[in-house]
Specification:
- The chain is mainly beta.
Length: 249
């Protein structure tokens, strides 16, 4: 089976932000970004017989050759708000709220013309509380942050339950809670020590998938599985790195 396809993307964005100082210690930053993404997709799918004069039937395109195109435009405004408090010149805290956006798209191997439909854009809300400090005459810097990330229509890579071809689908909802620490210390004139660590608690909060089940009789051999409460794949719960750097002038 061959899938000859192409996609053209036109993406436009405008962004701005402003900061207002209530006092020498307390400030408020407000920003926003507007995205407009257009994607145009076309596909020409066909199967070649294994033997001369044979059938061009294919599991991946059971209805025969596919020639189709489609386009979609996604517009999204995402805000950002940060309330910052400076305890002194070397210690700063902040509380922030921001939103993110990833446009939708098209799968490269649709099984028929009706399947040339876009998957949904991904949206996220992020809440973060942090503390940044510089100590020992700026020889030691620390960053500590706690955050909560709320996903809607999280884009996931998977496989079509019928054909087995790769697809992108949307989980209805997922969330990540975590704490992150970064430390950098100047040990000597040219030595720098760095340490980073994070702990993440993440799960799907609303997500159903169809899985193949050959034991089902009298109907399609698929059953629905509730993935709510399961961990999001490919995201480690614990992460740490440490490094020592030396710079030769």
């Amino acid at each position: 089976t061959m899938f000859e396809n192409g996609i053209a993307t036109n993406s436009y964005a405008i962004f701005g932000q402003a900061t207002y100082d209530f006092t020498e210690q307390l400030s408020l930053t407000v920003g926003g970004r507007f995205n407009s993404d257009k994607k145009s997709f076309d596909v020409n799918a066909f199967a070649t017989p294994n033997v001369a004069g044979g059938s061009d039937y294919s599991l991946f395109i059971p209805g025969g050759a596919v020639g189709a195109s489609n386009s979609e435009t996604w517009n999204r405004f995402t805000p950002r708000v940060v309330l910052a408090y400076r305890f002194n010149d070397d210690l700063n805290s902040y509380l922030s709220y921001s939103e993110g956006f990833k446009s939708g798209g098209f799968d490269g191997s649709p099984k028929n013309a009706a399947a040339v439909v876009p998957f949904k854009p991904e949206k996220v809300k992020n809440y973060e509380l942090g503390l940044k400090g510089r100590f020992l005459d700026n020889r030691l810097t620390t960053n500590l942050a706690a955050f909560f990330i709320d996903f809607t229509d999280l884009q996931l890579q998977g496989f079509d339950p019928v054909t087995g071809s790769p697809i992108t689908s949307n989980a209805a909802a997922a969330e990540i809670k975590g704490v992150e620490l970064e430390i950098a210390a100047l040990l000597g004139e040219n030595f720098t020590f760095k340490l980073g660590a994070s702990v993440l608690d993440h799960e799907f909060t609303d997500y159903f998938i169809r899985v193949f089940d050959p034991t089902i009789e009298g109907g399609p051999p698929f059953r629905t599985v509730d993935k709510a409460g399961d961990r999001i794949g490919l995201i480690p719960r614990y992460n740490a790195h440490v490094g020592l750097r030396y710079i030769w002038p």
